[in-house]
Amino acid sequence: MSVYRSPLYQLQKTPDMNLPVGYFRFHRNRYLNYQLNRWHSLGLLDHQTIKQLAKSIRRLDDHRFVFLRAGERAALENRMREAAFCYRAAEALTVPGSVDSMHCYDKFITHFYQAFASNYLRRNWIKYDGAWLPANEILPEGRPVRGTILLHGGLDTLMEEYYCFWKYFTHFGFRVIAFEGPGQGAAWRNHNLELTREWERPVAAVLDHFKLTDVTLIGLSTGGYWALRAAAYEKRIKRVVTAGVPNHWPELGALGCRWTRKKLLKCPKLSNRILRSWMMTSASAQVFIKRLQALSRQNRPIDCLRWLEQFSFDTLDTDMITQDVLLAGGARDWWLPSGNIVVQKQAFTQARSAGYRLFTKAERAAHHAQIGNMNLLLQVLFDWINQVEKATHMY
Fold first, then answer.
1. Could you tell me which of 223, 174, 175 has the C-alpha nearest to residue 203?
2. Please, are residues 230 and 223 in contact by the beta-carbon 8 Å criterion?
3. CA–CA separation, 129 vs 288, rounded Å?
4. Less packed terminus of the chain by CB within 10 Å, N or C?
5. Helices (H) and strands (E) in the chain, counts
6. Using CA atoms, how far apart are residues 256 and 284, in angstroms rounded to an integer?
């Protein structure tokens, strides 16, 4: 296992996409500030729009109303891209599955596909467990397909958020297939498919649908765990990339309980009191645990964390992963200890090749999932894919 560092002079840029660089203090609350930077860094809402809206957000409950009103104004003025992601921002911190949440989600989907309609974007519904998984196939414009990238996010993401990934990789000739598995997006909201640890099953359904045998799978945040799990059992995945996988879920720094992991799991009554207190005083704990309650169908916060443990890195059969692997992490990731990636790098004893990339503050990519410099993340991934493909074709 080696540290993977792409020489900057080899990195490729698209001439028509220039994502913003920097992690800004839009709000004093650290969790809300991360969410606001998320929309900005992914190139979905501009700096001035977020800065102005953030001034009206004094507490967590303000967030939804501020972005809801902004979405309504943007839609009336036919600014569909801005409308879509204002509704998405409103939905992101709304209780999942609620009437308010579904209203924002439906508006987001409607406006997104109005804004990004294209002959090169094909929407698909894939049959799975008596229901349907949504998948978007995005084709390169005016050039042959050189390979296929499968892409999915984590617990609280939607596939449409990663439009910049679609645009970047298709520019260089890749076909991108972005999909949502059980517990995500429309698969959960519209088809009631519950989150599963066996991520190889939805991945296999996607591969079967598109008749794919050689793909790169990119999983972001918690999706990194699912991508590695899928790679262990599904050998049509040839290369796998992760960005931020926890060793143990209850060690989350964002919940303030990294040091109490064992106590939390062993003392459920005390843990529930502690966690409920955090939910009353912490925006991050409140939103995160309410989302877990909806996804896991567990009521007690401690049961939600126990349920979430199944998606920890330590539960993976890493000896079964024989593909090329790249782990990406941030040196200042406030959700996860930066040391995680150092421990994880030692687990891939059977991988064809394995590398890791720890992004730094100086690169403005040190936060969770590299929010702050998506340009650099995309360029590093592109460079790594090129290198491992060339190495594979040599044999």
1. 223
2. no
3. 27
4. C
5. 15, 9
6. 10
Tally of CB atoms within 10 A around 28: 10
Q: What global pTM score does this model have?
A: 0.91
The residues, any chain, with a CB within 8 Å of residue 393's CB and separated by 6 or more, are none
Tokens of 378: 């995309």
Strands of 147-152's sheet in order across: 2-3, 353-359, 324-330, 237-243, 215-220, 147-152, 174-179, 131-138, 121-128
Q: Average pLDDT in the 297-303 region?
A: 87
| Other Cβ atoms closer than 10 A to 60 | 16
| Buried b / exposed e along 129-153 (16+ C-beta atoms within 10 A) | eeebbbbbbbbbeeeeeebbbbbbb
Distance CA(124)–CA(110), nearest Å, equals 16
Confidence of residue 247 (pLDDT cuts 50, 70, 90): low
DSSP assigned state of 252: -
Q: Which residues of 314-333 are buried (b: 16+ CB within 10 A; e: fewer)?
A: eebebeebebbbbbbbbeeb
Lowest mean pLDDT among 148-152, 260-264, 270-274: 260-264
Smallest CA-to-CA distance from 287 within 66, 60, 97, 28 is with 60
355, 3 in Cβ contact below 8 A? yes
In one-letter notation, the amino acid at residue 156 is D
Q: Measured between alpha carbons, how far is 381 from 217 in angstroms, rounded to an integer?
A: 11
DSSP-assigned beta bridge partners for residue 328: 243, 357
Q: How far is CA 154 from CA 158, 179, 243, in A?
A: 8, 11, 10
Q: How confident is the model at residue 249 (pLDDT cuts 50, 70, 90)?
A: low
Instruction: Say how many Å lie between the first and final Cα of the chain, rounded.
Output: 20
Are 283 and 255 spatial neighbours (Cβ–Cβ below 8 Å)?
no
Tokens of 203: 């991945």
How many angstroms separate the CA atoms of 337 and 331, rounded? Answer: 8
**CA 51 – CA 27 distance, rounded (Å):** 9
